[in-house]
Amino acid sequence: MPACATVAAPADQSTAHWNQALLRRYDKSGPRYTSYPTALAFHEHFTADNVTQALVRSNQRNRPLSVYVHVPFCRKICFYCACNKIATKDTSLAEPYLSRLDREMVLTSRHLDTSRPVEQLHWGGGTPTFLSLSQMGDLIDRLDARFGLSSAADRDYAIEIDPREADVFTLRHLQSLGFNRLSLGVQDLAPQVQKAINRHQPRVLTETLMDEAHRLGFRSLNLDLIYGLPFQTEKSFSETLEQVIELSPARLSVFNYAHMPERFKPQRRIQVNDLPSAEEKLAILRATIERLTAAGYIHIGMDHFAKPNDSLAVSQANGTLQRNFQGYSSHAQCDLIGLGVSAISRIDDIYAQNPTDLASYEAALDQGRLATIKGVRLTKDDLIRADVIERLMCDMQLDLAAVGQHWKINAFGYFTDALEKLRTAERDGLITWQGDTLSVTPIGRLLIRHLAMAFDTYLLGHSSPRYSKIV
């Protein structure tokens, strides 16, 4: 990655320049760019051998490690959910899954220099709180035995929590295991919305956990919200936001609900007529940005907000913010090891993905091989474009002179086609130029996925129906 000058977060994050007609015009389908190339470019000619070779190459670079563990189980299905999950109340499924995770760790660690520090750890799902406290402890012990976990003060060890399946004892146990950051799923506090998405979750559940987490000294708390759910209105979601602001999380993720029932079966339980209109959805988004910025949160980009002293905001100000499969990250320059069903790794210059179904994942590991089912090795062009897209989405600006210097290219010549595509965006006020630096305006921040698409050669000028809408 190029050495970046200090990148200040844009001072004006207001909606003063809001243009609803413009947003509607640009509201097409597009990638979220948690990777480039995106997962749609992964292919099945890529095998486990490619992964082991990448692990060996990565040892030579000696970058720190980030480990993601996917726990696919949850006890009750939420109708909006697009995650890879297995809805079950059969907790006995966890033990054989933990055994397979350990096999995957063993197979991976054979090729890995495990003296490299694990700076970042993230458990997602499903919900990791499907596991019992003893199973959580067992999983941490296995991770430590295979990779060597860190006790450094600046480590970022996070876990996703379902407040319906956790209590204060869960949080105390997680702290003892070394976790220092929590992400709590809330989505919406309005009872009518909760009923429509099959997620009954009174505020007191979230509030109790947050109070205990603050008392225990967890470094950062994140709450997940979703806008665009059935029966939401600007007024109802503003009431949810007011309650959330009172809880004072360090971070907020406010995701855009993408209704894609043809891809995600649970969403077929949501009636299209119950969803807010496109106009109402934009009104919700505008009110969200206004309320959160008024409450002191910085709009990091896309759907992420953080308090000024949170590591996400600090990293953005320093120009070291990164994107990975969990969204924005403050720990750049790590090789990412993905473990479990559907998990994706980014090691050296490759992406590798595990099967999305449990049976295929188990069968591969039972045969003594990594469960890689597809992936891609990045070309030099991929690496250059991945760098540019990441810096644009993280910094909300792009210094083409710095890009050219790092990659030893004439950046303006290299990206002639991309810059031509951005001319319309410039005329519409989404970006401005100052010398060699492209800067994203406040209205452009909401359309950052569209701006990044200009640099994506895999799209061939067309968005894919498999991607969600931008706004």
UniProtKB/TrEMBL annotation:
S-adenosyl-L-methionine 1 binds at Y68, G125, E160, I344. The gene is hemN. Pathway: Porphyrin-containing compound metabolism; protoporphyrin-IX biosynthesis; protoporphyrinogen-IX from coproporphyrinogen-III (AdoMet route): step 1/1. SUPFAM superfamilies: Radical SAM enzymes (SSF102114). The keyword Ubl conjugation does not apply. It catalyses: coproporphyrinogen III + 2 S-adenosyl-L-methionine = protoporphyrinogen IX + 2 5'-deoxyadenosine + 2 L-methionine + 2 CO2. Its EC number is 1.3.98.3. Its cofactor is [4Fe-4S] cluster. Residues 59-295 form the Radical SAM core domain. This is Coproporphyrinogen-III oxidase. CDD domains: Radical_SAM. Binds 1 [4Fe-4S] cluster. The cluster is coordinated with 3 cysteines and an exchangeable S-adenosyl-L-methionine. Keywords: 4Fe-4S, Cytoplasm, Iron, Iron-sulfur, Metal-binding, Oxidoreductase, Porphyrin biosynthesis, S-adenosyl-L-methionine. GO terms for molecular function: 4 iron, 4 sulfur cluster binding; coproporphyrinogen dehydrogenase activity; coproporphyrinogen oxidase activity; metal ion binding. Gene3D superfamilies: 1.10.10.920, 3.30.750.200. S-adenosyl-L-methionine 2 binds at Y80, C81, A82, G126, T127, Q187, R199, D224, A258. One of its GO terms (cellular component) is cytoplasm. The keyword Metal-binding applies. Belongs to the anaerobic coproporphyrinogen-III oxidase family. Monomer. InterPro entries: Coprogen_oxidase_HemN (IPR004558), Coproporphyrinogen-III_oxidase (IPR034505), Elp3/MiaA/NifB-like_rSAM (IPR006638), HemN_C (IPR010723), rSAM (IPR007197), rSAM_sf (IPR058240). It holds the Pfam family HemN_C. [4Fe-4S] cluster binds at C74, C78, C81. GO terms for biological process: protoporphyrinogen IX biosynthetic process. It comes from Vreelandella populi. Its main location: cytoplasm. It is found in: Cytoplasm. It comes from the Bacteria.
